[in-house]
Structure formats: C-alpha cells, structure tokens
Write a structure and sequence with these properties.
This protein has 8 helices and no strands. With 214 residues, the protein is mainly α. It has one domain: Ferritin (Up-down Bundle).
C-alpha cells in the first residue's frame, strides 16, 4: 500500500488505463474463493438459464462500473487514506467481477457487449466526483453501494428456484457492498444531496435494462 501512496498523477492515470484493459478485455483473478463452488450446478430449463444469465450479466456489468468508479475516484483523490480505501474496495469488486464472469461461463453466456462504454462512463463519473473533494468521493461510494445492495436483494429473490450457485455469489457480494458503504460513512463520507441519488438510480435502471439482454 505504501507503494500505491507514492504514485504520482501520471502513474495513477497509467494504472487506471491498465485496470480498464484488464477489467474490460482481460480475465481478472479473484483473491478469494468463489462462494458458488460449494453449491451443486442446478438443473435449469432454457428459460431459467437465460434469466439467471441475464441477472448475472447485470451484476457483472455492475462490477465493471464499480471498478471504473473507484479507480476513477482514486486517480484524483487527494488524501492517501481515501485513495487506499478506494483501492481496497476496488480489489473486493475484482473478486465480484471474477465470480460473475465464472458464473456466466457456467451458464453458457457472456458479459455485456457494452462493457467498454459502461467502464468509460463510470470512470468519468468517478473522476468528476473525486475532483469535488474526498468527502464527496466517499459519498458516491455510500450511495453506489446502497443502490447495488438493493438491486442484489431483488436479484436474490428473482433467481430461479434451485440456483444456489448464483445465489451464494450474490449473497456474499451483498454483504461486501453493505460493508463498503459502512466503511465509507465511517471514513467521513458526505451524503449526496438531491437530485444526485435519483439521477444515479435512473442511470442504474437504464444500465440494468440494457445489460440484461446485451
């Protein structure tokens, strides 16, 4: 972590570019074991498999966006402690990204075709938030994680009955997102004023609608 704190602005920009290529085009590796591996592969009909894949594609895209958001924020964060907090959260989001990618392959499906676009837009939002100051930076973390936690709860209820493999992944992700939000609040996050949360929710809804199919 000390090495990360010594990185200059150009180094952080290059690190952001490397993360973008790894997230969108590469195969990120999880630091933790996939929680879904302990559950048996369910017997799903074609419709159930497509629905489960659509939900996991949304969650994979959400993790692409989370990576971009945190890396964009970290690239312009002024306080080393805030930057370290963002990069630590981003590492756990990498676990989520890898787990969702694994599950999509198991479901004979693929990530969203628009992931490069999702990443670019989220990185820009993260950098813009970071430039407002570290309190706003962490405020975006809180609001993002609260909204993700809510949609994960919806997906847990919507998954096909018996798909405990997907459900185990989403349950761990939901717990992680709640902890990220709590940690950001404890670190001094400023709660975002209206209409920012509403706009973020509308953008998230549009992403979920598109990513379910594309």
């Amino acid at each position: 972590m000390d090495t990360l704190r010594r990185l200059g602005p150009l180094d952080r920009l290059l690190d952001s570019a490397q993360n973008a290529l790894s997230t969108v085009l590469g195969a990120p590796r999880a630091a933790r074991a996939n929680p879904g591996l302990a559950a048996p592969e369910p017997a799903l009909d074609d419709g159930q498999r497509r629905h489960a894949a659509g939900l996991m594609r949304i969650n994979h895209t959400g993790e692409v966006c989370a990576q971009a958001l945190y890396i964009g924020q970290a690239a312009v964060a002024r306080d080393p402690a805030t930057r370290a907090h963002l990069l630590e959260a981003a590492q756990e989001e990498t676990d989520h990204l890898a787990w969702c990618a694994d599950r999509l392959r198991e479901l004979d499906s693929r990530p969203s075709l628009l992931n490069p676009l999702w990443y670019a837009g989220s990185w820009a939002i993260g950098a813009a938030a970071g430039l407002r100051g570290d309190g706003w930076n962490l405020g975006f973390v809180v609001e993002t994680e609260r909204q993700v936690e809510a949609h994960l709860a919806e997906h847990l209820a919507s998954l096909p009955e018996g798909d405990d493999r997907s459900r185990a992944i989403l349950a761990v992700m939901k717990d992680d997102e709640a902890r990220h939000a709590d940690d950001a609040l404890a670190a001094g996050a400023r709660l975002l004023p209206p209409p920012i949360p509403t706009v973020m929710a509308a953008m998230s809804k549009a992403m979920k609608t598109v990513a379910y199919r594309l």
